[in-house]
Amino acid sequence: MEIGVLGLGRMGRIVADRLREGGHEVVGYDVDPDTVAAAAEDGITPAESIPDLAQQLSAPKRIWLVVPSGDPVDAALDELDPHLDEEDIVIDGGNSYFEHSIRRAESIDAAYLDCGTSGGPASAEAGFSMMVGGPEWAYEGLVPAFDAVATGPAGHDRMGPVGSGHYVKMVHNGVEYALMQAYGEGFELLANGRYDLDLEAVARTWNNGAVIRSWLLELCEEAFREEGNDLGDVADHVAGGSTGTWTVQEALEQEVPVPLIYQALAERFDSRASGDGEGRFARRLANRLRYGFGRHEVARQD
Ligand SMILES: NC(=O)C1=CN([C@@H]2O[C@H](COP(=O)(O)OP(=O)(O)OC[C@H]3O[C@@H](n4cnc5c(N)ncnc54)[C@H](O)[C@@H]3O)[C@@H](O)[C@H]2O)C=CC1
Ligand SMILES: O=C(CO)[C@H](O)[C@H](O)COP(=O)(O)O
């Protein structure tokens, strides 16, 4: 099928490439003209503007947004909306706040799918895990596209009505924070404990059959291999935090205790208040893990 991809950054470019590899035709647009030119060299049909992207697509139009959450999503929808009708489908593949997705779905004529996406740029080859909310007909119509961008048919599903995709992804990220903090605390104890340990070897051993093996633990192994046993100059400064904040706010509203997720979020805030120094090993590992899966910039010690 023909799909427009709006936003060709770290994640959008992977969405566009995997759609093409799956046999779909992709028209791409990004506010950065160099990004569009680079995509065009690799076979993505370039668009000069959002109206141009909409006009290049035949009806019914399918447009996948992969732009930063917040104002860029509203700005893109404002420009798109005059070119859309109720047969068209817009997918928001970013980390948008679920209540914003519900509002946006009500404000545009096209069907709206909120698609929480996990795996990060490091999963370009394997494909993503995708949690989709929105009308069933729109999800069903896009299954071939989701098959191509996800790890395959098992890598995506419809969670429920609009909002539910980003809601599930929000909670996913809260879990992500807590897992990173838990691995970090364990390695901090080992780094400061009784034995002179090779932490890459510990992570590799755990990743081969241990109860706590996981992709995040493979990324810990990679971090020790690439940065060294002491994580080199990786700073105690963990960026991000919006999805974890929303998770904690929702947990308070629902009266569900989430102390581990809150503590992991609080550790991030404290890392930023304490400066970019050597600090806590656990938080330095979390800083490096965000690069591992998300290609987020690693804060380094001065
Ligand atoms: N990097 C990651 O690990 C993951 C990111 N996400 C989410 O995916 C979304 C995109 O993230 P990334 O690709 O990492 O960001 P990015 O910063 O690498 O790419 C965003 C792209 O959108 C473009 N852009 C901004 N406003 C635009 C507009 N109005 N029209 C067209 N293009 C526009 C920018 O020029 C940039 O190329 C965000 O919501 C992010 O939270 C979701 C899962 C994983
Ligand atoms: O969604 C993601 C991974 O699943 C993104 O990498 C997101 O940026 C992670 O959240 P934060 O930036 O708050 O660490």
From TrEMBL:
Write the record's keywords in alphabetical order, separated by commas.
Gluconate utilization, NAD, Oxidoreductase
**Which Gene Ontology BP terms does the record give?**
D-gluconate metabolic process; pentose-phosphate shunt, oxidative branch
Catalytic residues, chain numbering: 169 (proton acceptor), 176 (proton donor)
Q: Could you list the residue ranges forming a coiled coil in this record? A: none
Please provide, alphabetically and separated by semicolons, the GO molecular function terms listed in this UniProt record. NAD+ binding; NADP binding; phosphogluconate dehydrogenase (decarboxylating) activity
Q: EC?
A: 1.1.1.343
Recorded protein name is 6-phosphogluconate dehydrogenase, NAD(+)-dependent, decarboxylating
Write down the species: Halapricum salinum
